[in-house]
Specification:
mainly alpha, two-stranded antiparallel ribbon, two-stranded antiparallel sheet, 9 helices
Length: about 280
């Protein structure tokens, strides 16, 4: 079947994936610019695809799993991998990155913060510090959030025959976490680590080429757009989980994110600031 037709059929079959992807592009462009957004997307997608290609043949790094091919002809595949599956890693890693930045970027207290557009509100301003945004702390926390959200997504996807995803894959040896092996989450952490490390190295190179100044400036609204993407995917997944009657699985996801959400609200109100910068530093 022709590629353009299959791509259109994929979008119509998986509109929620491409909606999240559009939010990623909109958000990342505002925060990173077009060049870095393109790099982030390309590095993450290629890393995810190669790891999926490898794991379905060797079990590395996600452990053994297999795609059923039940939607061949209905959506785009690259080799044996559904296109939308590797694509999802891009916006999930970016959203996890924004959540890590939200917790770790330096702050300074201001009375009003301007959001993208015209709205203004009184919250703590996050400062866009180049040294922090590519730090090991951000890398580690991003990987953690990236693996966490898959603990909600993957058990739900495994039950795809009970909702509109469909039964697209299975594990020959089901794992202890609602049928998902622990190796799968390790694999997600590895993908996140490789992709974000590669992006950070190129981010440093771009700074060197362009001789960018540190440019410490409030970026709260842009980062919160990425955090909103993270919670949008989370709430979508939890809603479908409860909808198909998996109450225990849904409550497990809720309990994972209750403390994270509480800490996020404290951070937003300026009561969880590991370090700060005065406005005169911006």
């Amino acid at each position: 079947m022709d590629f353009p037709l299959l791509l259109i059929k994929t979008i119509l079959l998986r509109p929620y994936v491409f909606l999240f992807l559009a939010v990623f592009v909109f958000s990342a462009k505002r925060l990173l610019g077009w060049k870095r957004t393109g790099l982030f997307f390309a590095i993450t997608w290629i890393t995810a695809f190669l790891c999926e290609f490898s794991s379905t043949r060797t079990g590395i790094p996600f452990g053994w799993y297999h795609y059923t091919g039940s939607t061949v002809g209905q959506e785009l595949y690259l080799s044996n991998i559904p296109f939308m599956d590797s694509l999802s890693f891009t916006f999930l890693l970016y959203a996890s990155y924004c959540l890590a930045l939200f917790f770790l970027l330096p702050v300074h207290d201001v009375s009003m913060v301007e959001w993208p557009g015209s709205a203004r509100t009184s919250i703590t301003a996050l400062v866009w510090d180049p040294k922090v945004r590519t730090s090991r702390s951000v890398l580690g926390l991003t990987v953690l959030f990236f693996a966490f959200i898959d603990m909600v997504i993957d058990p739900l996807a495994l039950r795809g025959d009970r909702w509109f995803l469909g039964k697209i894959y299975y594990y020959p040896d089901p794992g202890i976490h609602f049928g998902v092996p622990v190796t799968n989450y390790i694999g997600w952490a590895i993908v996140g680590l490789i992709a974000l490390t590669g992006y950070s190295l190129l981010d440093h190179r771009l700074q060197s080429i362009r001789q960018e100044s540190p440019g410490n400036r409030p970026m709260t609204g842009e980062i919160l757009l990425g955090c909103g993407l993270y919670y949008g995917v989370l709430l979508f997944s939890l809603a479908v989980t409860f909808w198909i009657g998996e109450a225990l699985l849904g409550m497990t996801g809720v309990l994972i994110y209750l403390p994270i959400t509480a800490l996020m609200l404290l951070r937003l109100r300026g009561r969880l600031a590991p370090h700060s910068m005065r406005p005169t530093d911006s």
